[in-house]
């Protein structure tokens, strides 16, 4: 009896062992299948494969690869979940060092193609730029960049110093010292693209002769002396003055602003001096900008005078016009 039991136990152990082996083989078979995504020729395919090489997976999917076609993996190596992207080779024209060559490539960008051709380095520039996607029949120009250096003496422009001077009227300036340019020796880098200079840059310099500053005194006095005492002014206008009589023009003696024309009323261009401005004109006195005239354009001013002989004597002359606060 014990022998029968032993034999039955032995047979059961064998069956269990076989089942375990079959289970392991089956699970290993399922585990070995990889789910791979393929993007090619406008199609998006999902397949299961036992292959380890991307080329074999593509062949399994019926995708033919020509000699210059390329593929890219989304992962470091082929595994479940990997996407294989197929890139078809296209013709591209490359112009480099005076030669034109048509190549067939599956590279993704200008920069990748240049690297594959051995012409990608810091001394070249690609047109279009190196990150431009490669398309069929595109033209790529490879520009060679070279540099050279030269030394040259250059002027150093003199600075201008402006000093406030309360003895001068605001707006007036007086040069007290003329400026003089200095001189420097500069090392200049010249940049050439295919032999044509495109840029230059000073990379080193030192002064040979120091420049001499120009000194200008700038007026700050904003008071003008009049028969009625000192008056504050906003600005000074240099103008050309003429004289007119109240009876000139239509003879009505009324100005453009409705003020009667009389001594102390002047005609101006409102774009230069706004109507209603209070003025002081040396040799004429205090005035009100209240009139305009067809010939009074820009820096012209017409002074109303009630005496005809005085108007004739005045004639036409340059005047300084103080625009008062």
- Write down the CATH topology of the largest domain: Barwin-like endoglucanases
User: Termini, distance in Å?
Assistant: 136 Å
Please state roughly what percent of the residues sit in beta strands, choosing from under 5%, 5-15%, 15-25%, 25-35%, 35-45% or over 45%. over 45%
Mean pLDDT: 89
Question: In terms of per-residue confidence, which ranges show pLDDT below 50 for 5 or more consecutive residues?
Answer: 21-31
Provide a quick synopsis of the model:
With 325 residues, the protein is of the alpha+beta class. It has helices at residues 2-32, 54-60, 110-116, 308-314; strands at 34-40, 43-49, 70-73, 83-87, 90-96, 99-105, 124-127, 139-156, 160-169, 173-177, 182-193, 196-209, 214-221, 223-226, 229-244, 265-267, 278-281, 285-291, 300-304, 317-324. It folds into five domains: 1-29; 34-86; 90-147, Phosphatidylinositol 3-kinase Catalytic Subunit, Chain A, domain 1 (Ubiquitin-like (UB roll), Roll); 148-218, Resuscitation-promoting factor rpfb fold (Single Sheet), CATH 2.20.230; 222-324, Barwin-like endoglucanases (Beta Barrel), CATH 2.40.40.
